[in-house]
Structures are given as structure tokens and as C-alpha cells.
Amino acid sequence: MVVKRLARWFDDRLRASSFAHHAMNKVFPDDWSFMLGEIAFYTFIVLVLTGTFLTFFRGGMVFRQIHHWAALLFVAAIVVHMMRVFFTGAFRRPREINWMIGVTLLLLSIYEGFAGYSMPDDLLSGTGLRIAYSVFLSVPLVGTWLAFLFFGGEFPSSDILRRLEVTHIMIVPGLLLLLIGAHLAILWRQKHTQNRGPGRTNTNVVGSKLFPTYAAKSTGLFFGIAGILGLAGGLFQINPIWLYGPFRPEAVSSPAQPDWYLGWLEGALRIFPPWETRIAGFTIPNPFFPAILLPGFTFTMLYLWPFLEAKVTGDHKEHHLLDRPRDHPLRTAIGVTAFVFYTMLLLAGSNDIVAKVFRLPVGGVTWAFRFLVPVVPLLFGWLTLRWLDALNRTGSPDVLHVPLSALRSQRQARPAPPSEPWQPTESGWALGDWERRRRAARRARRASKRARRRTGPPAELTTAGVGAEPEGESP
Asked: Which CATH fold would you assign to the domain 30-315?
């Protein structure tokens, strides 16, 4: 009784019951791929909880390892979630803002991870800070000032650890929390995308209500993630700083690799040729190209991609139904090329380990990656484009059923069918133009076969030579 009266007292002043009723009835799609964003969100919650514990108590090996494993999973979940958004076209209007927020979250999470594993000041993280200092110095004109701003002096500087601690514990987590809140608010306002299918249109969402079905599944996912991270922190060793020892400026550990989300930058630094240039009297040092220019181009393209695609395709309509990758072969091929390119750079960041395992010279492995990094991604992109083109031309149900003859041939046998025979309209669902033509042609062929079976073959085809021109007669 008291609880009801207290709830009524709050509702009289906040008018929250109508909002709560609407929120509980909000529908979310049931497809598993939409859980990728939730994995990132729940991993962030584990990071906040374990990070708060470490901030207060400064210890606990299990909590340190849970925190580190959660950081790796957090960035991985963001990357896979953004790949799902890219390949399905979920970044298009009206979701360009959420896409840019996601890119910013990825950028901040990479910095947050780097700051976190640099704070112990061990030999491995000190090597990473040494590389970061050199990268700052490589920026033309302002490199010296940038290095002093972030490090507080020449490397090694005692100020950098305090600055990393402040940004890692206070500033960046606050920005991440703000952006995640904005991301979810925009998602709530714009409604969720969904895959194409019967009963699904641009004006509805087919799935489970938030409460109780979706909330139960989502809660189970959270505890599952927390349990897996707890097992990983307790059973699998990660970042054993006691083996590396404290940082010494004159020493470098080998083999040494950063966490996976910075491996592509490490690989670019390792395989980039020893080139430098001078422009307008200023030297452009070697690290500038792989460590500043490459990531700058990467994130600029990520931010601009929704607008570039809309400009090139002329598609400025709102989209709430997702594409399949086969629907846009060029976009899919570009995405596969980029994914393979950064994966090859990640592998190149372990050239010393590859050389040690296979007993090869490090120089030879480095030259091999210099050849493979530009060639292999283009090969995968070309194969993807050919495969999807053959998939659409043959109308195969999936990529595993594409005949090899279609891959070898580039003939445009017929227009590429849409991803689904049923297409959404304002009044509901109807057969698309291509599917209607296909079914009409199939009915015509069947009717022609039935007619031939009833009447027999045409007379002029029953006698050999009929149809030839008689001699002496003009045609």
C-alpha cells in the first residue's frame, strides 16, 4: 500500500507512467546480429565496474585481467557491430549521426585502451610510449609542440603517466558514457532497423516487446558476458608485466606487440619503407606516413562514407529496411578490401614472431608483407565483386550455390534480381517488378509446353528438308 501511494505521488509530479508504458511496449527485432551493439554496451559496463574497483583499491590480479580482457572485447564488439552496420547499409539516412557517433566511440576506445595498458610503466608499455612520442614528433610544423603538450617534456617524461591516468579514469570514460547515451537516445527516437521479410516495412518493426521478452534475453546476455570475462580473467593470463620488468629507456623487449586494436598501426610502421621527403623546406619524417596519414585517412573516410555513398548513388531516401551484402556488390567489395587490408597490417605487426616461429629472417618477412599488404586486399575485393555479380546474375540462394561457370563468365544474362521477391509498398507487400516478369515468363513457358503436348510438333518440322528453298524459285 505504501509503495503504491509513493509511486502515485511520483507519477503525479513526473507524469512518467505513460512514458514507461510506451517504453515497455517498444518492439526490437529478434535477429542475433542486433545483439552485437549490446555486447559492446555490456562490456563497457564491466569495464566501468572493474575500473572503479581498481581506482579505489589499486590491485587485484583477477580484476586487472578481467578489465584487460573486457577492453579487448569492447573494441572488438564495436568493430564487428560497425561492420554489420556497413555491410547492411544501416548508416544511411536518417542514421548518419549515429554512424559518426559510432566512429567517434571507436576512436576514443582505441585511445582509452592504449592509455590503460601504458599506465603500468613496464618495459612493454614504455616501448609503446616511445613509439607514440616519435609519432608526435613526426608531425610537420607542430610536432615538437604536440609532443610537449601530451608528454610534458622530452621522453621519458614523468608527467605522461599522470596525464594518462587522468584521461583514462576521468575524461575519456565520461565522453564514452555521453556518446553511448546519445547513441541509444537517437536509436530510441528513430526506431530500430530490421531485415527485409514478409510483414516488415519502413513504417513498422517486427520482433519482441522490450518487456518482458527482450529484457529477459538482454539480461541473460549481460550475465553471460560478465561470466565469460570473469572466467577469462581468472584462467587466462594477459599482460604479465612482472615478466617484462620496469621500463628502462635503453632497453626494448622483443618480440613485442601492442593490443590487437593497435596492431594495424604497428604493422604499418614496421613495413613502411625508409622514406622521407621535404616539402617547402620542411622534412616529413618517416613515421608520419604510416602513423598519422594512414589513420587520418581511415577515420576521415569512415566519417564521410554515408555522405559519399549518398552522393555517388543519388540515394537520399530514408531507409529502415536493411540490405543484404549481395544487394550492393561494390560497397561489399570495398568493405572486404578494407577489412583484409587492415587484417594484413595486423599480421605484419607480428613479423618478428612470424620470423621466430618459422625460422625466417625478419627482413625477408618484412619484404613479403610489403608485397602482400597491397596485393591480397585487392585480390579479395575483386573476387568478392565477381562472386556477388555471379550470385545476382544466376539468382542463387546463397554464395555457396554459385556455379563456377558463372564466376568465369561476365555475360549479363539477365537483370540482377532484388534481395527478396516480395517488396514493401505503402499498402503492404507485393511482388517486385523483376519477380512478376520472371513468374509471367515461367507461366508462358509452361503454357507453351502444354500446348505442344496437346497438338504435337508443327508439320514443317516432321519431314527433313522442309523449309528449304525450292530450286529455281526466288525467296
From this structure: Cytochrome Bc1 Complex; Chain C (1.20.810)
The Cα–Cα gap between 417 and 442 comes to: 15
Asked if residues 95 and 126 have their Cβ atoms less than 8 Å apart, the reply is: no
Query: What 3-state class would DSSP assign to 94?
Result: coil
Residue 277, C-beta contacts closer than 8 angstroms, at least 6 positions apart? 283, 284
Q: How far is CA 362 from CA 122, 128, 368, in A?
A: 25, 20, 10
Euclidean distance between CA atoms 267 and 373, whole angstroms: 10
Q: Please report, for the chain, the start and end positions of each structural domain, with discontinuous segments joined by +.
A: 30-315, 324-420
CB atoms within 10 A of CB 196: 17
Amino acid at 255: P
CA distance 134 to 121: 17
> Residue 27 forms beta bridges with which residues?
209
From the CA atom positions of the chain, what is the Rg in Å? Answer: 30
The tens place of each residue's pLDDT in the chain, 475 residues long, gives 787 888 788 888 887 777 787 888 888 898 889 999 999 999 999 999 999 999 998 878 999 999 999 999 999 999 999 999 999 999 999 999 999 999 999 999 999 999 998 998 898 889 899 999 999 999 988 999 999 999 988 888 888 999 999 999 999 999 999 999 999 999 999 988 999 888 888 888 999 998 889 999 999 999 999 999 999 999 999 988 888 888 888 888 777 889 999 999 999 999 999 988 888 888 899 999 999 999 999 999 999 999 999 999 999 999 999 999 999 999 999 999 999 999 999 999 999 999 999 999 999 999 999 999 999 999 999 999 999 988 888 877 777 777 777 777 665 444 444 445 555 554 445 555 556 666 777 788 788 877 777 765 444 333 333 333 333 333 3
Which grid cell sits at 268? 604499418
d(CA 466, CA 446): 27
Residue that is written with C-alpha cell 612493454 in the block: 124
Q: Helix (H, G, I), strand (E, B), or coil: what is residue 450? A: helix
**CB of 66 within 8 A of CB of 147?**
no
Helix extents (H) in 138-212: 143-151, 159-166, 172-190
H helix intervals, 192-293: 215-235, 241-244, 263-271, 288
pTM of the model: 0.84
